[in-house]
Amino acid sequence: MLRHQLGVLHRQTDRPALNDNDRTLLGAIAAALPRPRRQGWIVTPDTLHRWHRQRIARHWTHATRGPGRPPTSNETRRLVLRLATENPTWGYRRIHRELASLGHHIAPSTVWKILKTNGIDPAPKRSEVTWSQFLHSQAAVACDFFTVDTAPLRSYYVLFFIDIPTRQVFYAGTTANPTGAWTTQAARNLFLCHGDKLSGSRVSVRDRGSQFIDTFDEIFRTEGPKNPQDTSPHPGRRRLR
Known about the structure:
By secondary structure, the chain is α+β, with helices and mostly antiparallel strands. It is built from 9 helices and 5 strands; from the N terminus they run αααααααβββαβαβ. A hairpin with a 5-residue loop joins strand 1 and strand 2. The protein is flat and about 90 Å long. It starts with a helix and ends with a strand.
């Protein structure tokens, strides 16, 4: 009887108009019913899959940003290069202050980018040793999180460590809630499983995330790199030496 009624409705309406509530209800019912009970529906399985893909895409689509900063004028660019060329001891911050006094209001990072793009060192007196060279010389091990988004709209956090001189990556664990206690235990498990491979590490590199608590650093003091000190030259980046 139900199949016959649906056949009558199909003859009267070529394509039914469904709203979001209808799609959600039909999708939930389809997930609960066995496949043989889905015959005679007004939508096909491919349509249900397409609705699910669209729902996932809408959930993870973020609003686009505005047009952003206006482009820097050619006159300002030429002035930055002239100041840097005529004053080789000036860094990008000194050049930025001079530009501000002349009425050119741009960000210090823009000055730095212009200098770097044109091959001019923004800080002539900085050390010859690059950040990468320093990390390799100190046998550093770095750690961080990356996220994995699943179809049921859940996010999982994966903790990993990388031995910078060898570029070898060590998987430390996956969790939906990366607390400080979990991160500390993951670091302890890392040295239990791979302590021999990291025995020569003298520096650990991490950001200042709230997951990296004092007990996490204590693991590196007792089981990893020795004599740790915070010698970070840049805000937002911490090195334990």
